[in-house]
Amino acid sequence: MDSELTAILKKVRRLELRTRSLVSENLAGEYQSSFRGTGMDFHEFREYQPGDDTRSIDWNVTARTGDPYIRTFIEERELTVMLAVDISPSLRFASGEQSKRDLAAELAALLGFSAIQNNDKVGLVLFSNEADRMIMPGKRRNHMLRLLREMLTAKPSAGATKIASGLEAINHALPRRSLVILISDMISSDFEDILKRTARHHDLLVLQIKDEQESLINAGIPLLIEDPETGVTSVIKPHRNQSASELAAKLDRDDEELATLLQRAGAGHIVLHTNEDYLPALHGYLRRRSRRRTV
Fold first, then answer.
1. What are phi and psi of 270, to 5 degrees?
2. What is the average per-residue pLDDT within 107-134?
3. Residue 255 maps to which CATH number?
4. pLDDT more than 90, % of the chain
5. CA separation (Å) from 290 to 153, 285, 286?
6. CA-CA distance, 124 to 200, in Å (whole number)?
7. 198 and 172 share a domain?
8. Residue 37 and residue 57: Cα distance in Å, rounded?
9. Is the pLDDT of residue 255 over 50?
10. Is residue 149 located within the same domain as residue 53?
11. Which segments of the chain does DSSP mark as H helices, in order?
12. Residue 35 has what pLDDT?
């Protein structure tokens, strides 16, 4: 077997073992209570009983039988989850052992296996400048393993990152309301309109991945970078010359603007860092979301 393929398969297996363990120990119940089906299916007609909502009365059946009948419904449990994962070159950045792309793959695996365990369907869009790869939703373990292989091996298309490319592909392919999980560092432009439209048509959750040391590049500070694939090192000498305080203020404004945009659109938003344990932030969001659903 080709050595590169062997390495990829080992990485897929490690991801599966780690994330499925986390699902079993930490997320299974929280996922189920936080993300539910998006519709109601008709169940049956039954006679009206005191205390029933009068708005549920079916007047046609009532007229035929002479007695009041209501329509009853059951919640549609099955959910379609679409993972929109950024594979643009900026995701390869790593100031420590874990790159942003590594974290993106682990988060996608964790949420994907949570969905599979809950009998939901999971699909995938990988994007950079374009929607580079789309796999329609499925619900078996082997399907999820295929998604992981694609995430780890896909090559980005040339050009600047366009979040709109990935979300447009999802909106076109999935006319029915689904859960869309966007995993990206959000280093892109002109995505305000597409985020709003996606949040209107789907349940949108944005996982924003950050590496604290990336800000040094933007500040104009030379950095010694090692390519994780080849081991080759090089020095990046940015052209921009910006003070640390100016940069910090700009980054804070960008973060605030994105958070405000997503809040107004009704989308979820979690900021996660490559050098920190992501589980507390993820748990916190799921618990808050679950509480809102039960209010």
1. -130, 130
2. 94
3. 3.40.50.410
4. 44
5. 35, 9, 6
6. 20
7. yes
8. 24
9. yes
10. no
11. 3-22, 28-34, 59-65, 100-117, 141-153, 163-173, 192-201, 214-218, 244-265, 279-294
12. 79
User: Does one domain contain both 65 and 124?
Assistant: no
Domain holding 69, by residue range, is 41-75
Per-position DSSP letters for 200-242, written without gaps between them: HHSEEEEEEEE-TTHHHHHTT--EEEE-TTT--EEEE--S---
Total domains in the fold of the chain: 2
Which residues, including other chains, have CB under 8 Å from residue 173's CB and lie 6 or more apart? 134, 136
> Residue written as tokens 């007229």?
63
Q: 69 and 212 share a domain?
A: no
For residues 62 and 149, state if they share a domain.
Answer: no
| 47 shares its domain with 105 | no
A 10 A CB-CB count for 265 gives 17
The reply to whether 9 and 71 lie within a common domain is no
Q: With both helix axes pointing from N to C terminus, report the angle between 3-22 and 141-153 in degrees, rounded to the nearest 10.
A: 130
Rounded to whole angstroms, the Cα distance separating 199 from 220 reads 36
Measured between alpha carbons, how far is 48 from 55 in angstroms, rounded to an integer? Answer: 11
Question: Where is pLDDT greater, at 35 or 160?
Answer: 160
**293 or 127, greater pLDDT:** 127
